[in-house]
Amino acid sequence: MNEFVQFAQKAVKAVSNILPFPISLTDDKGLIVGDSNSRRIGTFHAPSQQVIIENKLVLFDEATTDHTKNIYPGAAVPLHFDFETIGVLGIIGDPKEVEPYALLVKSYIEMMWHEAAHQQRRTFEISHMETFLHYVLFTPDAEKEKIIDYCDMMDIPHSKTRFIIVADFGHSLSTINQKTLTLDEIKYRFIHLMKNIFNNHDDLCAFLNNDRIVMCKPSYGIEDYKEQLKEFDTQAKRFSEQANRLSIKEVSIAAGPLVSSIDELTNSYQKADLLIRFAKKNGLNGGAYHCLDPYILANLFYDGSTHLLDEPLEMLLQPLLQDPASAELIKNFTTYLECNMNISEAAEQLFVHRNTLLYRLNKVERMTGIPYKNFKLASMLYYYLQRKASN
Questions:
Q1: What are the tens digits of pLDDT across the range 346-361?
Q2: Which residues, in sequence order, are bridge partners of residue 252?
Q3: Which long-range contacts (CB under 8 A, 24 or more apart) does 131-137 make?
Q4: Residue ranges of the Putative sugar diacid recognition domain (predicted)?
Q5: Do 57 and 75 touch, CB atoms closer than 8 A?
Q6: Helix-strand-coil percent breakdown of the chain, rounded to 5?
């Protein structure tokens, strides 16, 4: 009920701007918590208890009121929220004059309170999710049992494959010049926007701080994950365009690898964070990055960050490695690289027709998504295949 007390005077002020009569609000115990005459706040108003007991509009005329007992002529009506009585609205004046306004003002104040309560609940939920994701992502010794208990309590599947999407704004949201929105409202808008654009209405989405938001997006396995990443660049562009409308000029967005449960999300977040930091280090701010993007992987490869390549390259190469003709395809590809990407020379060494080699190289490209004509990307693939063969 403390929330209603804080709300009451704001409601009185809002209604007083449109109503020509003084009003008062009492809580469910009869204490005046908002009034056009601020000196009445904190005093007891006995008739409010009568209104709550009768649970209907009650009129008070001169004959039934005594100004010395803090009672004035007018109309009083109970205020309800979620089928409970939360207080009483009183409109002071001639009962016949104020009665027509009572139910109208009652509806208006109940609507205001409903919105205020909804905002408070929303703020609590946002804060609660921020705390949970902070614990999951940044606590080195996070207890799996605690995470599972929380998931059970919130009806969130624990052992479900997900991956992290990080949106980094580059500066604090608090610097946004929004006269009509609070910081919590701005956060809510971005969370709602992110869920809509990335087609995810899971509750696992929150701000880690005032300049970074994370989403834990469900997936149904590796193939579904790959399909989701095909849409990622377009979705990230749409999100950035919407952020630009709120004066955020550069948004870096990264998707981490797939993990099998919530307590493994740290791995996905750290990889997404590394992609954003790598992009900023190399002047690639304000873009979309994911760990299956061959161009991003090639940049990591030539930067010497080869330890980050094993997991994503293994996933990219899975269709090739599982193909019945994988040994032949890999041999054709590596020979092509060893012949300095000369098709004719490689075909001669392999004793195959030039068109046969082109067909096989194109098949490797379709399976892996790595263009065989791009030296940087092909070299990265060659390195990985050679290392895998030696192991």
A1: 999 999 999 999 999 9
A2: 168
A3: 132/206, 133/204, 133/206, 133/208, 133/214, 133/216, 134/208, 136/262, 136/263, 136/265, 136/266, 137/208, 137/214, 137/265, 137/266, 137/269
A4: 6-133
A5: yes
A6: 55, 15, 30
pLDDT 10s digits, 71-116: 889 999 999 988 888 899 999 999 999 999 999 999 999 898 888 8
Kindly give, in sequence order, each residue whose CB lies less than 8 Å from that of residue 156, ignoring residues fewer than 6 positions away: 150, 202, 203, 204, 262
- Cα separation, 348 vs 365, in Å, equals 21
Strands 252-255 and 288-290: parallel
Tokens of 38: 């601020």
- pLDDT one-digit tens code per residue, 275-322: 898 888 877 767 899 988 888 888 888 887 777 788 888 888 889 999
Two tokens at 320?
Answer: 């090739």
- Residue 180 DSSP label: S
End-to-end alpha carbon distance in the chain:
67
Quick one: CA torsion of 319, 322, 327, 333, rounded to 10 degrees? 10
Q: Phi, psi (5° rounding) for residue 99?
A: -55, -45
Structure tokens belonging to residue 118: 């909804």
pTM (predicted TM-score)? 0.72
**271 with 256: CB under 8 angstroms?**
yes
In whole angstroms, what is the distance from residue 383 CA to residue 391 CA?
12
Residue 341: closest CA among 312, 305, 379, 368: 379
* Residue in 262, 300, 261 with CA at minimum distance from that of residue 282: 300
Nearest to 331 by CA among 257, 378, 295, 385: 385
Angle at the Cα of 92 (from 88 to 98), degrees rounded to 5?
95
Alpha-carbon distance 335 to 348, whole Å?
10
What CA–CA distance (Å, rounded) separates 92 from 40? Answer: 13
Nearest-angstrom CA–CA distance, 289 and 232: 9
Sign of CA dihedral 90, 11, 42, 93: negative
Q: Report pLDDT for 2.
A: 61
Task: Report d(CA 326, CA 318) in Å as an integer.
Answer: 10
pLDDT at 201 over 80: no
Burial of 58 (0-12, 13-18, 19+ CB in 10 A): buried
Query: Predicted confidence band at 67 (pLDDT cuts at 50, 70, 90)?
Result: low
